[in-house]
Hints:
Blueprint: E1 5-8, H1 10-18, E2 23-29, H2 35-46, E3 51-54, H3 56-62, E4 70-74, H4 82-91, E5 97-101, H5 107-119, E6 124-128, H6 137-142, E7 152-155, H7 158-167, E8 171-175, E9 192-196, H8 205-208, E10 213-215, H9 228-244
Amino acid sequence: MQEQTQIFGIRAILEAINAGETIDKVFLQKGLKGDLFSELEFALRQNSISSSYVPVEKLNRLTKGNHQGAVAQISPIAFYDLENLVMQVTESGKTPLFLLLDQLSDVRNFGAIIRTAECTGVDGIVIQKKGGAPVNGDTIKTSAGAVFKIPICKVDHIKDAVFFMQASGIKVIAATEKTDDTLYDVSFTEPCAIIMGSEDRGINPSTLKVVDAKAKLPLLGDIGSLNVSVACGAFLYEAVRQRML
């Protein structure tokens, strides 16, 4: 099983970017200056690669080598192009089912969702380039290897994916408590994409405004919410149930 690897050193990371490596995230040392460091910052912005500024102690924990103030995490998978994937699925003759994850942050939730998505025949998962959980060793393990079996796409913003889905004739359904409709009131039999929100904030309010339908799970106990991977499983299997009728 391929694990996520690391590249350390400013020049080495620049070379990886220029070589087209799939870089998931770069950790940069806070307060570092210099022309080469500025060149790396520019390359990260130009290529929309997620980065964060961290204390040098974190970089020292990530690698025992001479990191020069920068450590990159290389994704173990290659990401798909959303437009090509949607076109491919649409032209295949099957009824598309996509899953959009709005900045899900926990890698184990992410892995569990990937596993369920693969088991329920989801055609592709869409995540945001920044702010979400990475595809790393924990994701691979929790997904039971499903991460290598289902296409995953990255977009600048989940709303970009929503608009593209809608333009492609795919209905976008948000899993949210901010509605009176349950998932049993919504049709999943037509081409559709389900959006799941982050663990703490849910779906971005601006994204909620542009979806085609909203649905919630009926909660009969005292706890006000479900774990996002469990909720996602309920939505996906309702889609399966409706499509098998």
